[in-house]
Amino acid sequence: MGLRINTNVTALNAQRSMSNTRRALDKSLERLSSGNRINSAGDDAAGLAISENLRAQIRGMRQAKRNAQDGISMIQVSE
Fold this sequence. Notes:
Layout: H1 9-34, H2 45-78
């Protein structure tokens, strides 16, 4: 009694195609549901780098504003 392995190339190709389509659909749904243009570095690496740089600048400016407000408060208390 010999061992026989059967393959169904057509079914394997259909499965691979469906898997690729599912991945593309998942990516599209992620973009639509988040509302963001960039969800990961793979979407736009340069845009993500620029965005992160701008976010860091905004955080720095917010902290500078808080520091200035704290300084004004200290001066007002000392008067």
